[in-house]
Amino acid sequence: MCVECVRVKCPDRGSVCLETGSYLVNFHECASCHNKENIKIQNQQTDTDEDEGEERVVYDHVCAVCEHLIAEHRYEFRIEGDYQEYSMLCILCGRAEDTISILPVDPNKQASIF
């Protein structure tokens, strides 16, 4: 992974967890060939455990010209009780976490109203 290719290392993305794609706003240029064009995704691997309600996606962001490794992207999804939990970690796309209720009415949000 190359911190010289990005503007900010692991920017805080709040709850924006990306399973695919690239956060091009944070791409400065390829430190190897100085390309500022598109980024390719390579070596994508998806590991799914349906019994546990988990999914992991890992892939590499590489320069479209010289295939220099810019970043490794990690995305995880899992079911914890009545919630879906998402997380992302990548020096290009950033870090983020999100939790969403699978119930029609989120008990945590209802409790905070009163």
- The appropriate CATH architecture is Sandwich
Helix content: under 10%
* Assembly state: single chain
Shape category: elongated
Give the domain tally. Answer: 1
The number of strands is 5
The helix-strand sequence is EEEEEH
CATH superfamily: Transcription activator, Churchill
Count every helix, treating DSSP H or I runs of 4 or more residues as helices: 1
Radius of gyration: 17 Å
> CATH top level?
Mainly Beta
GO molecular function: zinc ion binding
Protein name: Protein Churchill
Pfam families: Churchill
Family: Belongs to the Churchill family.
What do these coordinates show?
This protein has 114 residues and is mainly β. It has a single domain (3-109), classed as Transcription activator, Churchill (Immunoglobulin-like, Sandwich). The protein is built from one helix and five strands, in the order E-E-E-E-E-H. The chain has a five-stranded antiparallel sheet with strand order 1-2-3-4-5, with no helix packed on it. A hairpin with a 4-residue loop joins strand 1 (39-49) and strand 2. The longest helix is centred in the C-terminal third of the chain and has 7 residues, at 107-113. The N and C termini lie far apart (46 Å). The model has no long low-confidence stretch (mean pLDDT 90).
Name the features.
about 110 residues, 5 strands, five-stranded antiparallel beta sheet, mainly beta, Immunoglobulin-like
